[in-house]
Write a structure and sequence with these properties.
With 284 residues, the chain is α+β, with helices and mostly antiparallel strands. The protein has helices spanning 16-42, 81-88, 90-96, 137-150, 189-195, 250-283; strands spanning 2-6, 11-15, 71-77, 100-104, 110-115, 121-124, 128-131, 158-163, 167-172, 178-181, 208-214, 217-223, 243-246. The strands form four sheets. The protein has a five-stranded mixed β-sheet with strand order 10-9-13-11-12, with helices on one face. Strands 4-5-3-8 form a four-stranded antiparallel β-sheet.
């Protein structure tokens, strides 16, 4: 069986066997294209090795720990509000230590913004310095309440502590790089990337760097977003002042190099043309 194929100048006959081979080639090319498409999609997937509907054990210690130079607010309360005044009053605390700053709140009241010193201690009126570094807000609040009660100032103290300013930085191949405020504990790497608008298609999902300072020592943790092992990383839960850096993948790097080289050669040609024009003009 043969097929007539029109051509501008001649006619070519294809046999049935040739058509079968052509169809096989077409199917093979289609498979290659689909495989390449699947591979491209897989490069941007997260948690590729996670088992669906299978609980994953994650680290529990995700609460943010207080560090030196953190700025926090401390509000002491009691059933008898007058007893808490020396601990909360701006004028009282300022006259005692001079180490507090004033910050207005939305209701027109005021709270004290206090800075943990470089040694990790927090200065409190009447009860003095308390070690704050390494504690969670809840732990520090319980310690302050205990010392107030033990000193006999208040029998039923309740202490609420909030961070005055707590932020992280997300930079590199994300949609919206920049600083982001943290408003709660247990902020994960996924929360940070969500705030930054997720990674771009150029971002390396298997090598995200998290820079952190602990006790004056800078550490860098690398996270593979495509693996469920990230749940066990100490950088899965972020701390204040962490810097998340998403590296560009090889395609973005190659594209940047090509663009840079193109600009260089265009500039080189432009200079050459200008020099040639000057030479021609000078020899006329």
């Amino acid at each position: 069986m043969a097929y007539l194929c029109p051509h501008k100048y001649a006619y070519t006959f294809y046999t049935f066997d040739n058509m079968k081979n052509f169809n096989k080639l077409l199917i093979a090319l289609l498979v290659v294209v689909l495989s390449a498409s699947c591979a491209s999609q897989k490069r941007v997937w997260y948690l590729q090795d996670a088992n669906p509907f299978t609980p994953e054990q994650i680290i529990q210690n995700g609460q943010i720990r207080i560090k030196p130079l953190d700025r926090i607010t401390v509000v002491v309360s009691s059933r008898n509000p007058e007893l808490a005044v020396p601990f909360n009053s701006w004028s009282t605390y300022n006259s005692l230590t001079g180490n507090s700053q004033y910050s207005g709140n939305a209701t027109g009241g005021s709270v004290q913004v206090r800075t943990v010193d470089s040694n990790g201690d927090l200065e409190m009126p009447l009860i003095g310095k308390i070690k704050a570094t390494g504690k969670t807000r809840e732990e520090l609040g319980e310690e302050i309440a205990r010392q107030i009660k033990d000193a006999g100032y208040i029998n039923d103290p309740s202490v609420n502590i909030q961070f005055a300013d707590m932020k992280i930085a997300v930079i590199g191949e994300v949609a919206r790089p920049g600083y982001y405020e943290l408003t709660r504990d247990k902020v994960t790497i996924f929360d940070a990337l969500a705030m930054a608008g997720d990674l771009t298609v150029w971002g390396m999902r298997n090598d995200v760097a998290v820079t952190r300072e602990i006790n004056g020592v800078r550490t860098i943790e690398y996270i593979d977003l495509t693996s469920k092992d990230l749940f066990n990383s100490p950088a899965f839960y972020l701390q204040q002042n962490d810097v998340v850096y998403v590296k560009p993948n090889k395609y973005k790097t190659q594209s940047a190099e090509i663009s840079q080289n193109r600009s260089f050669y265009i500039s080189l040609v432009s200079i050459a043309v200008s020099v040639a024009t000057l030479i021609i003009t000078a020899t006329k």
